[in-house]
Amino acid sequence: MSQNSKFKIQNIRFLKIWFITTGLFLLGSCYSFTGSSLSPETKTIQINDFLNNAALVNPSLAQQFSIDIQNRFLQRTTLKGTKNNPDILIEGEIVDYNPSSPTTISSGVNAPGGIIQAAQNKMTITVKVHYENKIEPNKSFDRTYSDEAVFSSDLDINTIEATQVKIVNERIINKIFNDIVANW
């Protein structure tokens, strides 16, 4: 291959890369996503502690949920926390907590009488949320959120509550956050 044809191939590659990079830059500058459907006038938020009114009570669940939801809104929005006349009020209660219910069944190998055991369990948490938006009252709502995590039946209750509660809380808080901030 001649020196001249190598030079042409390199120039063509350079031009392709330059056009693609420039095109992506131009497309990116045409679209802006702030990620928030909250009105620019919305400045303050109050998130009250969530109560645990579930029949079965995990002693740390309500406190952990309250802290996690407060952190989510204060860290991922420009809203400022307040206790006096907030633009947004979020409060609620945990209405159901089931740390372990069987989801899949397995029978033991060589088990006399065919003993049946749970192979996987699931944890379910249900939370009722009251959301009040004083700037845009039509966006206010009362909703129930529920989620679950499936795990091996070999885990003990302490491990379940240390790991699975965190997973389920995160999922529920994501749903609440998206409904309020992203309005999805």
Poorly predicted spans:
29-35
Mean pLDDT figure: 82
Percent of sequence in beta strands: 25-35%
What is the molecular shape?
flat
Helix and strand run: HEEHEEEEH
Q: Major beta sheet, specifics? A: 6 strands, mixed
Q: What is the count of DSSP helices, taking H or I runs of 4+ residues?
A: 3
The structural class is alpha/beta
Query: Care to count the β-strands?
Result: 6
Q: Helix content range of the residues, please? A: 25-40%
**CA distance, first residue to last residue:** 57 Å
Q: What is Rg?
A: 26 Å
Structure notes:
This protein is α/β, with parallel strands linked by helices and 184 residues long. Helices cover 38% and strands 32% of the residues. It contains 3 helices and 6 strands. The protein has helices at residues 3-30, 61-76, 157-182, and strands at 44-47, 51-52, 80-81, 88-107, 116-133, 141-152. Strand 4 and strand 5 form a beta hairpin. Helix 2 (61-76) packs parallel to helix 3. It starts with a helix and ends with a helix.
What key phrases describe this protein's structure?
about 180 residues, alpha/beta, six-stranded mixed β-sheet, about 40% helix
Quick recap:
38% of the residues lie in helices and 32% in strands. It is α/β, with parallel strands linked by helices and 184 residues long.
